[in-house]
Each structure stands twice: as structure tokens, then as C-alpha cells.
Amino acid sequence: MEINQRLAEIVGEENVITNKADCQAYSRDMSVHMAPPQVMVFAETTEQVSEILAACHQAEVPVIARGGGTSVTGAALAPKGGVLLNLIRMNKILEINLPDHYARVQCGVVCGALNAAVAAKGFFFPPDPGSAGIATIGGMINTNASGIRAVKYGTTKDYVMALKVVLADGRILDTGSKAPKTSSGYNLSQLFCASEGTLGVITEATMKIMPAPAYAISARLEFPDIQTAGDAVTEMLTTGVPIATCEILDNISIAVLAKAIDLKVEPGVGCMIMLELDGHKVAVQDYVKQVDAIAAKHSILSAKWTDDPVEKAPLWEARHRLVPAMSRLKPGYRLVPLMEDFGVPMTKIPETIRQIQAIGEKHGFPIATFGHIGDGNLHATFIMDVKKADEWDAVKKIVLEFVELTASMEGTMSAEHGLGMAKSPVIERELGATGMEVMQTIKDAMDPKGILNPGKMGLRDSIDDVYDTSGFEPLRTGSLDVASFGEVDNEIVACIQCGFCRLGCPTYAQTDLESMNAKGRITLAFSLLSGHMEPSADMAERLYKCMLCLNCKYTCPAQINLAAVVQAARQRLVEKGYLPEIFVKLMSDMKEAGNPFSMPRDTRTDSYPVGYEAKPGADTMLHLGCVASYQDVKIIPAVMKILDAAGIDFTTLGKDENCCGYLAYLVGDMETFHTVAAANDKIFKDQGVGTLLTTCAGCYKTFEEVYPHHGHGDGYKPEHVVFLLERLINEGKLSFAEDGKQVKAIYHDPCDLGRHLGVYEPPREVIKALPGVELLEFPQNRTLAKCCGGGGGVKAFANELGGDIAFERIKAAIAQGADTVVSACPSCKNSLNQAAARARKEKLGKVKVLDITELVASRLAK
User: Which of 76, 346, 612, 769 is the most exposed place for a label (fewest CB within 10 A)?
Assistant: First the structure.
């Protein structure tokens, strides 16, 4: 595209992304649609956005503004190609003014970040969509997002005071003011609310904020059916109970949760209401009594109230976990949002749900309905096998019946999610021909060349059919070469593309690229599965920069196993000849030298302590691993010292020890992996190994989990040294000096030992048992611990990237006041050691990095 050179002049070449794999990573959102841009550009200032739009206006190139990418309707996808304008780096909170109750922010500020900033000052920003942790203020304005607090506090548009907007031709428009109210002409600020980026690009917003409520109490109310629940809520609201949050789950939603998360529900419960009251405590407690009295009149089965923040979490668990549970109900099935955002008069909620269920029964399709009953907003969602054409046909008929149902209830098709592409084919049924003409007239006046987010909202050139641009179309019809990954297909399909994974992904944190995030990597794997893309060097470049750390799994509502997906995709790349050259060399070395470092076998024992003698016939075989053997000189002496002190007979293979093959498995070279694993199986059997003891988290995962899953590892018991250390300490078999130097040790959870295998407490118990050692914790620990930067082969493939991630971890350790970082993985020690040296060089602080065996050995009694 000729426009690319001009874009590079505006924002710098490094901020213009044309790589096909990178662009494909922006092709999906929570909707069914798939539409990649031709180029993606990062902008950081209003002036840059202005220049970009001016250039695209002149060249008549489409521009799609994107914030968090959390749309459920395809609103930020690129069905006409063009430029995706990524605003995620425009994330500065420019001003917080408490006396005048406003915050001025750039459009890329995340809702959760704004709330965190004002919460520290006793205020809050009321709109609270389910995606608040990743949704941006700009996106929320563009869809008029709301969430669970809308019944009392309203929607995003109610908090917009002023905007800075770049128009299609690059002109900059300032709307509104900081005054509490205005009657100065047309309300231009409101014009851009729910406009989905079709009229201009919002770059800055002044938003109202409010003092946080002094007190809040939550309840879960259980009713026999939706009618009694609806009647109770109607009476509560019409008699003046100021409910802050009011959610409903129908009987199908309850059944989904009972199966997916083992939700305990008493027999006869057909509807749940979850609500919250807030305000002054005395007044709120009076309203609690009023709610109880009203509920009692309407056949309530049970009620549980709590104002304890700890107890509130399980109370709300059912509502928060419902959406991801729908994609985990059955392998191969997933939640599919199409016509999922009804808005009807609140009194018509029970009848609407009954008719939704009747429509589902008519087509043999159970439909879970839930949502914000307090403001008449329902979400009716499908759980379906996206590979079955007959289910898509049924869903299409149901969607059309939903359109008519909405009209009959005098409601709206979209109460908070917007229109995007998903509702474009049917929105005229609600707005009417004249309404659509008026919208198109406004669009033409504001954007005469039609470059801003084309193909959306039912405007000119929008899609005509729900199947148009559907990413699942190849799976439905077999129109492309669908290439299954086997069981891993279920993980790929279950991902609903919500984007919460970016809260955990360390490579995304370094790059802001979706292709460097779990969501984007799943999109690339899906593209291989569906036939939208073929394996390529560009794709390998992105998939081999994943550390397989699984941090994303624990910020993912559905707990998608990205490591399994990426490893399967890497296997596909290897099969097609796209194994990166560095790994080709490492695999060759692994097979020929028994290690991936090109090191001679004779040097594997160089760090053995003087006088060590193998004990043939010992039940315990100490497998030391390649990193401890070749890249460290302290771990092997430390672990041997501990075993000797405890009187444990052990032996080693010495120079005959081979790599466990984990790296081959990680990079997808299964031929090398099986070769190495088979050789290890033979030598362990020949040696009569009983317990295979290792200090390496990766080796332990390989022997404990990977080998058995792939037909290896029979006949011996793998054990990581942390289990042995804990046992020896508990049995009193290790004695420690009481006069050692005081140490502030912070424990770093290795990904393979922690998130992959769930081992968190044994190493901590070991450290706490050592005299003179104080155990500290990273703010992000256990399931949310950050990777050392070396996982998944990244240390070999992208050493600078891995080094930057390790550096962030070391800076966090220094900030916590630690003088020693302790891990239970030689690879983690190696990566963090290099980062610690960088911190010393940059004069940020000094911190040692030790393996847990070194710390224990250093504390043994003389």
C-alpha cells in the first residue's frame, strides 16, 4: 500500500505493522466474524491521529480505530481491509479533578486503570462492563457500554462531559466542556456515543467521576421461576429501593453452571437474582429489610446477604463464571454471540425469557439467558458445535425470530454491545427505513468518503448475512482446507477471544502486539486449523516467541491451555519446514552430543565436587540436567552436599547422562523428542532406576507429565528436589546452623513447576524452615507469577526479548526489598542471574540469584 510510507513518516517505521501474521492476529474479536486489516499502525498523540486520518482521507483508505478489541459484534474488525489504527498506547490519565468530579483521559486508558487511580482518592467511575479490566474508555464511549451497575448509575454516555475527536479529514473537534451542564447548541459529545468509530476517532475524553459509596452489601436470591423473580424485582424498583446491581440467571444458565463449575443449587430453584445495594450503611440496611419483605411476598426460596468482600466473591461467582463456562460445557462446543444483547422494558423480562426458551425448544436448541434485569438488558447466548452446518442453520432461524421478539416487546437489539457487523443485516427492522436514512445522512456529512470503520452498523456496504465474513464458515462448509490438530482443536475453539489473556502475557507487555499475546496466537492457530492461513516464516516468528508460561491461563476466564495450542501449532510448522534455524542446530546437537549446547560429553561432570564417586545400584538416580551441568557450577555441588548430609545413597549417569528432550518437545520437533525419550527410557531401565531425582523444573515436567502422555517413562518415579527437601526437613534429617547471615529471600515460581504442575507450597515451606531466612513474595506470585523470560525456547530464539522480561522480574524483586531471588529451576536461575547483572550495571540495586538447593546447602550445619 502506498499509504504505508506516509504512515511511517508520521509515527515511525517501527510503529507501522504490515506483517501478515501480525495483521491476522487482529482479525477476530468475540463475534463470529474474521476480517484482518492490511496494515496496523500505533498512534500515541492526537496530532498523529490527525495526520494519519488526513493521509488516509486523501488516499481514500479505510481506517478502523481500535482500543481494547473487546467487541462482541465485530465493531473493530476490518471487513474492507485498510488501516487498523491501534490506540492502546494512548493510555495516559491526564487529569483527575476531585472538587469538580471529573477525570480527563486519553482514549486508550483502560476502565479498570481509571477506577484504580480514582479509587485511591475515594472516587469511582460507575460504568462497569464485564471487560472493564481490558476495555478502553474510547471503546466504551463508542458502544455506550454499561455493565452491572447501570440500573442505578446509568451508561457510559451519562458520564461524558467533553471529547476531543479527530474527524475523517484530520480536523480536530473539541466538544462539550468541564461545566456540569450546557445548552450550547447540538450536543456533539452525545453524537459520538455509540457511533462505533464511524463518525470520528475519539482521542481524549473528560469523564464524570463520583465519590465511592461508603458501604455495599450483596445478595443472592433464589426463586422457583422467572416470573416470581421478575415480579419481586419490579416491586423493589417501583417502590423506591435504589438497587445498584441486579442480575438474573434463568434455569438453563443455572444448569450450565451446575455442570461446568459444580454450582450447588437446592432443588426447585428456577431463577437466581444477584443484587447489590450501596450508600450510607444505616439507609442500606433499611433497604435490605425492604428487599427481604418484598421477596418473601414472591415465593423466595432462599436469600444470602453479605457485606464481607471475601464472602462476596463466591456469592457472585456464578454470574462471573457463566460466560466462560459456556465454552467449557462440552468439548468442541463454544459460546457464540449473535443476537445476544436484548433491551426490553423491565416488566417484560419474564415474558421475554419465556419466549426465548420457547424459541430454543422449537428448534431443539437450549439457550442460556442472563443479564441485567434491573435495566431490562438480557443476554441470550448459543452453545453450539461450530463445525455442524445444521446447528448454524438453526441458529440463523433463531436470530431472525429474536429480531421479531425484540420488536414485539418494543425493545432494542442492542442495549450495550453496539451493532458492529453482527447486527448490520437486521438493524433496519428496529430503526426503520427512515431511521437508517437519517443515520446514513449523518455519516455522509461527517465522513463523505466513507473511510471511517466501513461495513458496520447497517450503513452503506455493511454485510447482508450473518455468515458474511464469519471466521467459522470454513468449519461449517469445508470451503477451505480444514486441518485438524486433534484434541487441541477443542482448546482453540473454546477461546472466545475476550482478550483477558493480555493481563498476564509477558511478551504482550513488552510489545503491545496482539500476535505476541495468547489471543493473537490462538487466532493464528485457528487460522491454520480453518485454512485461512498456511504455515510461514512470519507465523513461526510469532509462535516461537511464546514462552509457554501459561500465565494467560490464569487470567483467562475459560482457562484455555495456550501451551498445548502453541506446541501443536509449532509441530505443524516443523512438519512444513519452518523450524527456525537456531533450533535446527540445537536439535542436531541434542541428538549427537546429548545436550543442546554443543558441549562435549566429557565436560558434563566438570562441576561435580572433588571426590564424588558414583554408587552403582543406588535406588536414587540424580538427573542433573543440561543447564546445571554446562551453564552453572554451583547447583550440582549444592544438591550433592545436601544428599550426603541426609545420608541418601544416590548415583548419576555422569558423562552418559542425556538431555531429557524437553526443548525438542517445546519447539515441536517430535521426531527428536521421541528419539531422545526412547534412549533415556532404555538407559534408565538398564540402570534399574527407582527414583529419578532432578533439580530442573523442565526436566521434572518432562519425566512426570510429557513422557507418560507420549508413551514413555514407564518403570521409575520422577521427583523434583523440592519434595525431597521438604520431606528431609520435616523428618529432621537436615541440621542447620543458627548463626548464618540474615537473608531476605523472594521466591520465583518456575512456570513448569508452578502453573504447569501446581507446585507452589513445598519450596516456600523449605525456605521458611531455614534459620535466618525471611521469605518475601513478589506481588505477582504462584498462578500469576511472571516468567523468567527463558521459557518455551525464547532464550535461544529471542534472547533480547527474554532478557527484558527477566529484567522486569528482577526490578520487582528489588522493589520488594529482597537481597536474594530463589528459584527451583536452573534455567530460571540462569535467566534471572543475567538480569540481576544488568540491574547492577544500571545501578538499580543488587540482588543475588540462587537455586533453592544452594540456599539450603549454605545453611547446613558444619
Answer: 612
